Amino acid sequence: MTDRVVLAYSGGLDTSVAIPYLAKMTGGEVVAVSLDLGQGGEDMESVRQRALDCGAVESIVIDAKDEFADEYCLPAIKANGMYMKQYPLVSAISRPLIVKHLVEAAKEHGGTHVSHGCTGKGNDQVRFEVGFRNTNPDLEIIAPARDYAWTRDKAIAFAEEIDLPIEQSTKSPFSIDQNVWGRAVETGFLEDLWNPPTKDLYSYTEDPSLGNAPDELIISFESGKPTAIDGRPVTVLQAIEELNRRGGAQGVGRLDMVEDRLVGIKSREIYEAPGAMVLIAAHEALEDVTVERELARYKRQIDGRWSEEVYDGLWFGPLKRSLDAFIDSTQEHVTGDIRLVLHAGSIVVNGRRSSHSLYDFNLATYDTGDTFDQTMAKGFVELHGLSSKIANSRDRESK
Amino acid sequence: MTDRVVLAYSGGLDTSVAIPYLAKMTGGEVVAVSLDLGQGGEDMESVRQRALDCGAVESIVIDAKDEFADEYCLPAIKANGMYMKQYPLVSAISRPLIVKHLVEAAKEHGGTHVSHGCTGKGNDQVRFEVGFRNTNPDLEIIAPARDYAWTRDKAIAFAEEIDLPIEQSTKSPFSIDQNVWGRAVETGFLEDLWNPPTKDLYSYTEDPSLGNAPDELIISFESGKPTAIDGRPVTVLQAIEELNRRGGAQGVGRLDMVEDRLVGIKSREIYEAPGAMVLIAAHEALEDVTVERELARYKRQIDGRWSEEVYDGLWFGPLKRSLDAFIDSTQEHVTGDIRLVLHAGSIVVNGRRSSHSLYDFNLATYDTGDTFDQTMAKGFVELHGLSSKIANSRDRESK
Amino acid sequence: MTDRVVLAYSGGLDTSVAIPYLAKMTGGEVVAVSLDLGQGGEDMESVRQRALDCGAVESIVIDAKDEFADEYCLPAIKANGMYMKQYPLVSAISRPLIVKHLVEAAKEHGGTHVSHGCTGKGNDQVRFEVGFRNTNPDLEIIAPARDYAWTRDKAIAFAEEIDLPIEQSTKSPFSIDQNVWGRAVETGFLEDLWNPPTKDLYSYTEDPSLGNAPDELIISFESGKPTAIDGRPVTVLQAIEELNRRGGAQGVGRLDMVEDRLVGIKSREIYEAPGAMVLIAAHEALEDVTVERELARYKRQIDGRWSEEVYDGLWFGPLKRSLDAFIDSTQEHVTGDIRLVLHAGSIVVNGRRSSHSLYDFNLATYDTGDTFDQTMAKGFVELHGLSSKIANSRDRESK
Amino acid sequence: MTDRVVLAYSGGLDTSVAIPYLAKMTGGEVVAVSLDLGQGGEDMESVRQRALDCGAVESIVIDAKDEFADEYCLPAIKANGMYMKQYPLVSAISRPLIVKHLVEAAKEHGGTHVSHGCTGKGNDQVRFEVGFRNTNPDLEIIAPARDYAWTRDKAIAFAEEIDLPIEQSTKSPFSIDQNVWGRAVETGFLEDLWNPPTKDLYSYTEDPSLGNAPDELIISFESGKPTAIDGRPVTVLQAIEELNRRGGAQGVGRLDMVEDRLVGIKSREIYEAPGAMVLIAAHEALEDVTVERELARYKRQIDGRWSEEVYDGLWFGPLKRSLDAFIDSTQEHVTGDIRLVLHAGSIVVNGRRSSHSLYDFNLATYDTGDTFDQTMAKGFVELHGLSSKIANSRDRESK
Fold first, then answer.
1. What's chain C's average pLDDT?
2. What is the mean predicted confidence (pLDDT) over A315-340?
């Protein structure tokens, strides 16, 4: 049987050239699979046709926007998913979805191999390949950049050599990955950590110093899921899209960070994720009102570990599933409204209301109606501090 | 021997009236102790004199600003101390220092009792009293608000009754605690969580929407300690003061949150802590560059626990000391410069440089000079994902 | 309406005297509720009648053995529930079940108060009372020992005074709590930590040095639940009972420990829990074979926290529920057989088999059939150690 | 310059043959380094001479027994170092010490390469190689088994071919690693997890069912370090050796487990570590008496992580160092005596005494002298359970 390589196809130069290249290297056929994850840009039908023009025997386009929002972005909202407390896992949550569709395409179209365009020093190769191994270990994996030392220069030369029917893009200085959850940019001059980002790096967000009028909005959640903005019902996808627009207009969602990669090195990254950051800020504020203290304290650790697992490419791992079970069990009452102001790069929560609130006015107030029995505090203080009191007495005596 | 009550004295109405009141209730004498923690406002000599005028047998004023900055704020910087990921522990880190000085004053001036003005439903009573128990369990503790059901109305009536020589302040609607590390405000109308804060709540910060020009600055650290701003050497205290000014001018450092109190209730709090927030943001950014990945991941958990222990009044507890030992051991190489822009309420890091950096340009770059051996990745990916691959295969088979 | 006190009734002297005493102190009526948790000893009908004889208006006996085994012991097995890595939570898991039945009895019989016989310095008062507050905060709680400073001597005097129709037990030197999950003993001479336990302390276990022949057995689990012993199907209750017998005969399950109580003090405790210890040892051994590494590592932390929450009386707390959600999600494949030898106080696992095993002979073997690709290791080692390698190089350079 | 390979030399067939083999493969010279870690067996001088006979240009023997005990075993005692709660890290803590001496020997003797005899599917290759990379990244690493697909059969054939002057051992069915901290055995028939271990597997321990008389002993610690047994002062090494003898005579210290290897597979392992297990049991019992509750709870997590880091070959990593800083800070008061009985495979603690004890008889006793103020408990219980009480009320209302 002829080998068939199922390729994660973006429509760009690299994966376009990869089509004839993979065919040549393997002696097989190439099936191109492209996902619409809300990355915008080119029409997906053009992408599909280009793969065929480049020699793919099949070219499949999948509109996965809602699936991505509902099954990948929503768990990230519930987990307040931020790697290193900052990065909303833009690329990290898209890779397992791409894996899933490539594996399905392989099953349907007789694929024997899967292939991706990632290099051998980034996180995405790990996410792709661990994903493939976890969901279908029988598929052979080809990573041309790593396994064939395939580079952009070689790709351009090869495209010319075989007279590939695609326009020769002038080499962009940026390496970009984007989807509806955010946008990631790397570029050479940022490899000097002292260089600030330049304005042309950004696409999802305006300059925060433009001086637009503040935008106040209300996000409603039901059991951790965003369901309305300013009272208008929304799907998760619509919520992200609207907040990308409104947050982006206020310069909200930019991130300039040095990141600990899974492969052991540190790298400089620029991200834009206005919708993600607004939704997570609102979600955390609602959790503060509706989740009990000890659960909330423990969930912060669980959230941190969830983010590390997802960052590390272990979306399909057993630990990730059990962390999800914990997180899901915490979301039942995360229902209510959060009011925020977006302005000049800032997200400021200034109001919360919830029929599931744990805030008890009568216990909290210092005014009339106070029902908190202050005499209880004396005993609490005494026993709360007893073990450390005994330890300190011992320490003094044994000196 | 006559009882002597050592009172944490602020100079305000409540603790002023407490002086004759405590004398009356205990039949003893009152020693007033006031600390200058950079809270600003009134001259400390006036505070000292007022206590005497109100009947204190001793009135002591201690300039503890540098001690507070060096021994309480600096550990908070090293621990990126934020309770619930947001609150920089403004009051929480000041209580143990006040405790320490009250206990010392009790020793010097024959104190048998210690007293504070906190209510029985807040965190500060716990911090004070656990602090006393931990450092000198022989001292009797009196909390008039809790133990005598002492209220503001009773205090005003008592002040009039005994003709106390202090001006009758019109009752402020705000309950405030402030020091150089920040400012905390509670007030009745915020007890409705849907009400936004009003402008008159703020004192350390300007309105972020004023449209001031951005302020770019460089903070230098040595082993986790801020040592210079824009190249000018500073003490920790000076760093906080300067960043309070510059951050405050940009509206940086405001916080509106619902907080999980130690006594089991949720409460609404407004904070302002520009210096604290800028310093911690810069410190975290420098850690991202200088602390190794696995250590950084674990330190985030340690930092979270440190913040909970300090919030919970266990500054003097054995766990806090061991967490400090961990944290101190991580700071040796947290040395370098962070460039930030403060503007319109936002803190944006846009540059880092360090002679202790773990960022390796040659490993990170995608350009000429790349020394990362990409062939290593294949084996890494395979074994990194092996245990979850085996688990997923088992799961499929056993279905 | 007349007050009705629903009392957790054991049948012993203390709670028998408490019936008329509570009636007297509250001016109300007493409803006695007794649970059969497999504690053995007296016939439950005698217990029921005695309460009536002592003046209870209602006396209810509930056979809760299977409920206890299925809904309280089984979660403890799944969580490998051991406080301080040693104590299988004998009393801690029984309190919430008693609470549940007292609250139900209060609802059915018009109870306005609930009462228990625990002292004010132990854990069980906390477990009872937090349980009541969590499940029905409207019930008033009376703890005679604490609230009325009720002591054993007073109880005996009161029993004589009112001529209570119970035999006067000679005062036992032991304070005992027991159920099918285990037995707890405290006694005066053990309050000197250097004194070893004496033989008369034990009831569930024989002397381990007796020299009985070893007992080899096979325990089968399905999704974490013990379902057969030596091939004979068992309920959870039957499994515990049989292993109490067989383990007890081998002296297995004794524990002599110094325990960190929730109220802040350390105390010396003797436990016997042969069934619990054998089941948890077997369960852990089966998890070692069927749970993936990263999940297993994290579950150890979760198990530890579960044990602390349950020990601390927070069985009904939200965190406990979410920890259960995590744990339950890990048990699906904990299915298989564990062979153990019980002998002279030791539990030794010496065989495991499971159709859900993650052990892969072909990957593990060093003999023919080895399918592990050792060339993968080189890259793994390199990247696994890369971040610490870079850190150590930095450390050497910056010295 | 001629290449020089510094080889971790055990004296056995494999590493003996490796000497001429490495010389042949690299065209260089071989320096043999052998450590006495208390593994017993052959005289070290014979080992040294054999390496020379096999062609080594230098052969170095280092008595590292005390260094191993003081700097590797002692930290493991302080950390209660047990991987998966069971395995006392026998091989894991010896690898970094061997690494250290190989790197030193390379410096002294002009070594350009380092080599070890481990396979490519075990943990030890990772520990060795990450150790080398962390301490001297300039050294080239050769792992013949992995890099040259070198096997035992090839080794025997090569030995015959070159007429190597060593006795041809009949192939032992066991793969063994041993040192004073313990002994590890793997063998083919145990690769079936249902097979029980056979008696010939054991060397450090007698059969526990032999029926020897119990052995009661007292171990004294100072700040976490064992300093005396039965009142006789001991070094750490002497403590381990004596407890290996006395524990071994009682059949104490055997372990049969399925282990999660770092390379992603599960494997069956047999260990014997009587001294290690007795010392850690005693140390934990003393910590129970001398370490404050919150610190003890947190230290259990830290201990678990320490064990994972060491197991995973990251002894020289920055996280390990910071975990040590935490652990060291907890040991100051871990001073006192633990009495244990060793018998028939069991370790039973039955007495503890310490001048640094946190156990307070007057707080713990139920007899005369009780100083615990039980009235404090009411308020404690109320506030300890308040947040979960509020949450449960909310849950009921929102249903």
1. 94
2. 98
